[in-house]
Amino acid sequence: MSNAAAMFRSAALTALRGAAAILIAAALWEGVVVLGNIKPYYLPRLSDIVMSIIAVPDAYITGFFRTMSETLLGFAMGVVVGVANGVLFKHSRTLRELIFPLFVISQTIPVIAFGAVVVLWFGNTILAKALIAFYLTFFPVTVNTLNGMDAVDQRQVDLLRSFGATRWQLLFRLQLPAALPQIFVALRLACTLSLLGAIAGEWFGDTTGLGVLLLQAMYNEQVIALWAAILMSGLLGTSFYGLVALAERRVVFWRSEL
Amino acid sequence: MNLNRLRPSRATSRALMGLAGVAILWEASARVFDLPAYVLPSVSSILAAIVDQRTSLGNAAAMTLMEAIGGFCLGSAGGMLLAVILTMLPATRRVLLPTATALNSVPVVAYAPLILLWFGIGPESKVIMVALAVGFTVFLHALAGLDRVDQRAVDLMRSFGADRAAILWRLRVPAAIPLTAAGMRVSTVRSMIVAIVTEMLGATGGLGWTIYQAVLQIDFVQVWSAIFVASAASLIFFGTINFLEKRYVFWK
After folding, report:
1. Could you give the CA distance from residue A58 to residue A53 in angstroms, rounded to a whole number?
2. Are B194 and B185 in contact (CB under 8 A)?
3. Is B193 among the domain residues?
4. Which of A136, A202, A245, B222 could make an S-S bridge to A206, C-beta 3.0–4.6 Å?
5. How far is B221 from chain A (nearest CA, A)?
6. Cβ contact (<8 Å) for B109 and A99?
7. pTM for the full model?
C-alpha cells in the first residue's frame, strides 16, 4: 500500500522536523542565557535543568508516571461520559434542556475549589485526582459530540431509515462517525485540560506527582527544580497531545484539512 | 410591545427547573442523611452563610474579578497583537508559532509557581497568569480567523492595488473578529478559574485565598459559599461578554 508508505514518510518527516525545532529552541535557550548573562533566578540554563533531572531522576520519573495515570484515567472517564452524554442529549430533548444548563454552570465552578472537597470525599487517591481531571474534560466532549451529531445531514438519516435501519445502526453507522472530527477537536482540548486537573488536584496534600514537585520547588524557592518540574509537565503534555493528534489523523483520515 | 418576549423561553424555564431540581435534591439529601458539613452542607446553610458574610465575600469577589478582567484585557490585546504580527510578517511565523505551541503544551497552572516567585503574591502575578491563559486561546483563535479568508478575495484586492495593510484591515480583520470573539467568550470563565487557582497558591485576598483559608480551618460551609459566589461572578462575566458579542459581532 503506497498510501500507508506515504503517510509513514510524512509522519517521519514531521517527527524529524519537530526534533530539529526542539534542538534549535534548546540551543537558543542556552545561548540567550549564557550570552545575555541572565540570572538563574529568572531563567536558568537549560543544561543545568536537564542535569538536575538526571542527577536525581527518581522523583521526576515517579512523579511523571503518577501524574500520567491520573491524567489518563480522568481523560478516559471524561471521554466515555462525554460521548454518552452527547448521545443521550441527542435522543432526548427534555433531558438536554433539563441537564445541559447545569453542565454549563458546573463549568464555572473553579475546579481547584472543588478539588478540596473531592480530596476530602475520596482521600488522597489516584481516583480523587482523576475525578478532577474528569470534571474538566467531560464538558467539551459532550458539547462537541452533540454539535457533531446535530450537524448530520437529515436526508442521510431519512435515507438510512427508509432502508429500515434501527436506532443503534443509525447511531454507529452514521451519527457517531460523522461526529468524529468534532469529537477529536474536543479530545485535543481535553488532553490539556485533564493534565491541568491532575496537577492542580495534587496540590491538596499529595506526596508524589508533578504538581507536588512544582509546589515543593516554589516553597523552597528552588528555581532550577521548578523549571525541571515545568519541563516534565511540558513533556507529558506534549506527548499526550501528540498521541491524540496522531490518533486523530489515523481515525479521521477523511478529513482533509488536518 | 410584544408580551411573548417577556415570557421566559422554553429553554430558560427548563434550565431553571433543572437548577431547582438539583437544589431540592441537594437540600433533601443533606437533611435526610444528616450529612456533616465537611461532607456536604445544605444549600440553605450555604446561602445563609453568603448573606451573613456578604461584605467580606463581596470584597473578595471584587478583587478576583478585577484580576480576572485585567488579565483578560491584557491577554486578549496581546493575543490579537501577536496574531496580527504573524499575519503581517509571515517570516516570523515559522519561529513564533512553534514556540507558542510549545509554551501552550505546558498546562498553564504549571507556570503559576514561577510567576508567583517572579511577581510576588500581590494582584500582579494573578493578572499575568490570567493574561497568559487568555492570551494563548485568543491568539490561536485570532490567527485561525485571520487565515480563514478566501484566497480569491485576497487576489482580487491585490489586483486592484491593495497593499498588505489594506488587505488586513478591510478583509482579514472583519473575517477574524467572530472567531476571536468566540475565543474571548470561552476565555472568560477560564480567566476567573486561573485567577482563583493562582490566589490559592499565595495571595493577600480574593476568592481563591478565602477558599484556601477556609480549607485550612476546615470550614466547609465557607468553602462552598466562596464556590457559589465564584460561580455566580463567572456567570455574570460570561453573560456580559456573551451579550457584547451578540450585540456587536452581528455579522457572524
Report:
1. 9
2. no
3. yes
4. A202
5. 11
6. no
7. 0.81
A198/A200 Cα distance (integer angstroms) = 6
Q: How many domains does chain B have?
A: 1
User: Residue A111 and residue A59: Cα distance in Å, rounded?
Assistant: 26
Inter-chain contact B113–A238, Cβ cutoff 8 Å? no
B106 → closest Cβ in A116, A226, A237? A237
A204 chain-B contacts, CB cut-off 8 A: 215
Under the banding of pLDDT at 50, 70 and 90, the label for residue B1 is very low
Q: What's the alpha-carbon Rg for chain A, to the nearest Å? A: 22
Distance CA A134, CA A171 (A): 25
Cβ neighbours, 10 Å, residue A137: 30
Pairs of residues, one from chain A and one from chain B, whose beta carbons lie less than 8 Å apart: 132
Q: Is A237 on the interface with B (CB under 8 A)?
A: yes
Which residue is associated with the grid cell 525541571? A228
- Chain A residue with CA closest to B195: the answer is A110
Q: How many residues does chain B have?
A: 252
* Binary contact (A113, B109; C-beta < 8 A): no
Query: Which positions in chain A touch B109 (Cβ < 8 Å)?
Result: 196, 199-200
Query: Rounded distance, CA A242 to CA B47, Å?
Result: 45
Instruction: State the residue range of the domain holding B173.
Output: 41-248
d(CA A173, CA A179): 11
**Residues in contact with A87: Cβ distance below 8 Å, sequence separation at least 6, in sequence order:** A145, A149, A171, A175, A176
Domain contains B49: yes
Question: CB B110 to CB A217 under 8 A?
Answer: no
Domain of residue B108, CATH code = 1.10.3720.10
Closest residue on chain A to B197 (Cα) = A112
| Assigned CATH for A48-257 | 1.10.3720.10
- The alpha carbon of residue B160 is apart from the nearest alpha carbon of chain A, in Å, by 30
Instruction: Provide the strand spans (E) within chain A.
Output: none
Distance from CA of B98 to the nearest CA of A (A): 8
For chain A, percent of residues with pLDDT exceeding 90: 16
A205–chain B Cβ distance below 8 A for any pair: no
* Residue A243 burial (10 A CB sphere; 0-12, 13-18, 19+): exposed
Contacts of B116 in chain A (CB under 8 A): 218
Burial A84-110 (b: 16+ CB within 10 A, else e): ebbbebbeeeeebbbbbbebebebbbb
Say how far apart CA A106 and CA A103 lie, in whole Å. 5
Q: How far is B84 from chain A (nearest CA, A)?
A: 22
Beta carbons of A233 and B196 less than 8 Å apart: no
Q: Quick check: is B9 in a domain?
A: no
Q: Please indicate, yes or no, if residue B6 is contained in any of the structural domains.
A: no
pLDDT tens-digit series, residues B11-24: 778 778 888 888 88
